[in-house]
Amino acid sequence: MGEISYPYDQGPVYGGMRVVCLANEKGGVAKTTSCVNLAASLARRGKSVLCMDVDPQANATIALGLDPDAPERDWETYALLTDPRLALERVIVPTAMPNLDAVPADRQLSNCEKALINEVGRETRLRSKLRDYAKSVFTKKYDLVLVDCPPSLNLITINALVASTDIVVPVQPKLYSLKGMARLGETVATLYSQLELRIPLLGILVCLYDRSASLDGVVYELIKAKVLREYGDFVFHNVIAKSVLISEAEADGRPVVIAVPESAAARAYEAVAEEMLQRLDRSQPVYV
Amino acid sequence: MLASLRAIFRRRQVEQPKIEPQVLVTIECPWEDNPIRRFGSVEDVLGDRTLDEVVRMVASENAGKEDSLPEAYAISVRREDSEEFDPADRRAPARSFLGDGAESPGRAVYQLRIQIVPICDETPPGRPHQQRHSDLAFEAAPTASTADRPMSPTACEAGPARPRGEAAPAAEAAAQSAAPAPEVGKKPRGYLRKADVLRAQLLPKIEALDLRGLFVGNFGLQLEAPVTSPRVSLLSPTEANRYLMQANQHRRDGDHDEAARCYRTLIAHDPDNKDYWFLLGKVEETRSEFGQAVHAYQNALRLGHASARAEIARIESEHGQVAAGPRDLMSMWRLTYPPAQPRTGGK
Question: What CATH number matches the domain at A18-281, 1.10.10.10, 3.50.50.60, 3.30.420.10, 3.40.50.300?
Answer without folding.
Answer: 3.40.50.300
